Design the sequence.
């Protein structure tokens, strides 16, 4: 059942967004594709390449249509009314134990209002940190889940994954192992 995380308005957690079979097929397909080593963690960019340093995206950064596996997840998200449009950009992130992602709000002029991240591999803890007062809300992201950020969750809270090998949350110890995430966005092209 979809779960609204009360403390963070606009944050929705969808367990079992994909089946075990789809999960395994996705991981195999993604691992057969080339990884980029621009960051500490490995990434793949589809639809449009994103420039992390400039925090910018434009039409010249189009790298082709989404691959079929990404298109079908984008269509599933629209069909399930997770998002009112079809995403056109995906970043695949690989996190080995000890790797994380710094606190950030996704580039506001680059991407539209809804962001969705699907988790493959191992669970991790995503922290939501309020820009106004630093309140921290940890959310466990299980494999096969999707987390959806809109409204305040998208614009008024930063999200991050700590660079650790284990973490205790709500009495549960999350031991990190390889996680691969698929983050879907819709690009805003400036004229
Ligand atoms: O790994 C995730 O689920 C989130 C990735 C993320 O925040 C990003 O690519 O900006």
Sequence:
């Amino acid at each position: 059942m979809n779960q609204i995380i009360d403390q963070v308005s606009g944050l929705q957690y969808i367990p079992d967004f994909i089946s075990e079979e789809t999960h395994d097929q996705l991981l195999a397909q993604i691992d057969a594709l080339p990884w980029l080593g621009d960051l500490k963690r490995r990434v793949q960019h589809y639809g449009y390449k994103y420039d992390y340093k400039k925090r910018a995206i434009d039409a010249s950064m189009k790298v082709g249509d989404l691959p079929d596996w990404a298109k079908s997840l984008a269509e599933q998200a629209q069909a399930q009314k997770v998002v009112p449009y079809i995403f056109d950009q995906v970043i695949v992130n690989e996190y080995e134990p000890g790797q994380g992602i710094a606190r950030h709000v996704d580039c506001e002029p680059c991407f539209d209002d809804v962001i969705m991240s699907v988790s493959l591999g191992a669970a991790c803890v995503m922290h939501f940190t309020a820009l106004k007062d630093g309140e921290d809300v940890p959310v466990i992201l299980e494999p096969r889940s999707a987390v959806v950020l809109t409204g305040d969750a998208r614009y008024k809270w930063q999200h991050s994954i700590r660079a650790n090998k284990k973490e205790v949350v709500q009495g549960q110890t999350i031991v990190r192992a390889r996680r691969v995430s698929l983050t879907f966005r819709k690009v805003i092209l400036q004229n």
Summary: Residues 91, 93, 101, 106, 117, 159, 181, 183 surround 2-oxoglutaric acid (CB under 6 Å). The radius of gyration is 16 Å. DSSP finds three helices and 13 strands in the chain. The helical segments are 20-31, 68-79, 151-155.
